[in-house]
């Protein structure tokens, strides 16, 4: 028995002293599992999301010599000068680096595939490290394995952001969020403030998707200072690193297009807000009045100045940050599923997300009560506020789900760590182990909604299976490659098919789902929902040589609903005008292709 106890203590010490090493070992295991599971997708370069496809095109352009600050995509609507993309080069760097590293050994094509497979897994290591740090600081130095298990088992919207080929920016922003919560939980004020400030600046330099989370993190640090003047160093360093980091991010990565006064990226608009906010926070901490009510009043005044300045100087940003027209919003942007609140999603999608977020908040509140007489109280109050905010964000947009589930992990870990010992304080060892295992299984089953009676209430819509099959078939690499038999040209096709078309084939497209190019998106919608006579002038303006359709793809349902007798609906019924010349495709092709004959041809 003594030998077993000694071994147990040695294992406990190993997990404490070398937690980072073991966290990276766990990350390596997840990486291997992902790569084995997705090796077929990697081989076929199955980039399922339009943004992932466009990200690869940005990397290809960079490696081909396109300017560092030039992020226009010139193969999208080339007749009108290309597409303005509002991203930054930050996320391009690891993908490009992996391609250059692998290319001498496996060739360009294979290097590109494996770079796209490996790149999304890099920020997963940072995310796992951030969660382990948070749990070590707030729950127990030995509880971090629970957090890692929860991340890979119950975070059904978070983990897919790190899957191979998910090369867009979401994984990196979630990694920054994980480090943000670790900084909030850090008992060392200056270090914690620096981590939160730098993580926020990094995330915002990539994109504004997590701007509300970054703002909430700053508000939490300000509240900590209001409550306790000893938090001065945390808030001061946060203000310095937020403003300075954002300025560096803008100087190093803001594209030519993002140097205009736009509202949808780190442009001079948001840079000025972040620098001003950082400067005001530093000024507050330099004053650092002793009275709590004075600190609260100064914080409120500082917040009011930021809001008033934003309203005065940037009134154009008070509406939709995308600054799209009402027509484009109604026609396209309002149909983006992730922009809808959680209650407008099917139960089998919404319930698992809500359960994880709810369990995380419940666990954080329980941890606050449990830590009410300890030094961890303030940290848990901060994390509970952050978790509650993330859960509330789901009522605005479902795109907050990955962040909400990520922030729920510390709370669920605390829930397990606190309750399981209470349930198994007495009883034989096998009972205690059984209860612990059941706790994990129970959280996993409930969170994933597996076989839960409420999780499958939404009946499939008529034709949904046909739409799903079309979405898969028309983006398949093997099918798209058949189009390369046709000389390179600009093809007029659906908006959502455009990015995939230019990745796999040598053809150009007219439009893709990117809001800064709203007129091209509207042109496609007008062409397909208008009359047949109205199509050719629109196609001619974009110098399209061919009309490519994927019948029944999800986007086509919008065309039909907006005008059941429009041009697309007529084509779907086989009513083809004589100025469209059919182009033969291989048997089994999911496409319909016509050469467009213009007047005089």
From TrEMBL:
Signal peptide residue numbers: none
Record key words, sorted: Membrane, Transmembrane, Transmembrane helix
Domain of life according to the entry: Bacteria
Transmembrane segments: 19-36, 117-135, 142-163, 197-223, 235-257, 269-287, 293-314, 349-371, 377-396, 403-423, 429-450
Designated name of the protein: AcrB/AcrD/AcrF family protein
């Amino acid at each position: 028995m003594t030998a077993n106890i000694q071994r147990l203590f040695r294992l406990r010490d190993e997990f404490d002293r070398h937690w980072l090493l073991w966290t990276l070992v766990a990350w390596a295991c997840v990486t291997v599992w992902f790569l084995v599971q997705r090796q077929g997708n990697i081989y076929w370069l199955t980039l399922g999301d339009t943004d992932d496809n466009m990200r690869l095109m940005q990397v290809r352009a960079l490696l081909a010599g396109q300017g560092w600050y030039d992020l226009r995509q010139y193969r999208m609507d080339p007749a009108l000068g290309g597409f303005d993309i509002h991203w930054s080069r930050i996320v391009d760097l690891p993908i490009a680096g992996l391609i250059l590293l692998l290319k001498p050994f496996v060739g360009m094509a294979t290097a590109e595939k494996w770079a796209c497979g490996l790149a999304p897994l890099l920020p997963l290591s940072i995310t796992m490290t951030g969660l382990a740090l948070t749990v070590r600081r707030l729950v127990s130095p030995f509880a971090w394995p629970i957090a890692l298990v929860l991340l890979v088992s119950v975070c059904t919207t978070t983990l897919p952001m790190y899957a191979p080929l998910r090369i867009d920016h979401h994984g990196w922003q979630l990694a920054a969020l994980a480090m943000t919560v670790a900084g909030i939980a850090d008992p060392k004020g200056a270090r914690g403030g620096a981590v939160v400030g730098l993580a926020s600046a990094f995330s915002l330099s990539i994109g504004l998707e997590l701007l509300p989370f970054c703002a909430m993190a700053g508000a939490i640090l300000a509240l900590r200072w209001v409550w306790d003047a000893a938090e001065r160093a945390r808030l001061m360093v946060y203000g310095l690193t937020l403003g300075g980091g954002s300025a560096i991010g803008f100087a190093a990565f803001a594209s030519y297009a993002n140097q205009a006064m736009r509202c949808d990226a780190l442009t001079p608009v948001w840079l000025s807000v972040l620098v001003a906010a950082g400067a005001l926070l530093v000024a507050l901490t330099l004053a650092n009045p002793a009275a709590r009510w004075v600190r609260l009043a100064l914080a409120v005044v500082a917040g009011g100045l930021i809001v008033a300045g934003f309203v005065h100087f940037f009134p154009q940003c008070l509406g939709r940050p995308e600054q799209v027209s009402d027509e484009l919003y109604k026609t396209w942007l309002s149909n983006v599923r992730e922009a809808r609140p959680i209650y407008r999603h099917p139960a089998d999608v919404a319930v698992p997300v809500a359960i994880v977020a709810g369990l995380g908040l419940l666990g954080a509140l329980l941890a606050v009560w449990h830590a009410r007489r300890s030094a961890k109280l303030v940290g848990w109050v901060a994390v509970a506020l952050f978790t509650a905010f993330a859960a509330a964000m789901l009522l605005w947009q479902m795109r907050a789900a990955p962040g909400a589930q990520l922030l729920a992990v510390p709370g669920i870990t605390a829930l397990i760590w606190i309750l399981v010992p209470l349930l198994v304080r007495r009883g034989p060892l096998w009972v205690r182990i059984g209860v612990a295992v059941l706790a994990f299984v129970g959280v996993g089953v409930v969170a994933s909604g597996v076989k839960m009676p409420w999780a499958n209430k939404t009946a499939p819509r008529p034709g949904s299976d046909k739409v799903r099959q079309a979405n898969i078939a028309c983006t398949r690499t093997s099918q798209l490659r058949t189009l390369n038999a046709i000389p390179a040209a600009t093809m007029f096709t659906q908006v959502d098919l455009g990015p995939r078309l230019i990745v796999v084939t040598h053809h150009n497209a007219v439009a893709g789902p990117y809001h800064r190019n709203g007129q091209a998106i509207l042109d496609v919608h007008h062409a397909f929902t208008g009359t047949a006579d109205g199509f050719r002038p629109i196609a001619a303006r974009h110098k399209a040589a061919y009309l490519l359709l994927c019948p029944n793809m999800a986007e086509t349902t919008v065309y039909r609903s907006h005008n059941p007798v429009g041009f697309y609906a007529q084509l779907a019924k086989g009513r083809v005008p004589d100025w469209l010349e059919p182009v033969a495709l291989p048997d089994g092709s999911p496409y319909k292709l016509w050469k467009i004959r213009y007047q005089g041809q």
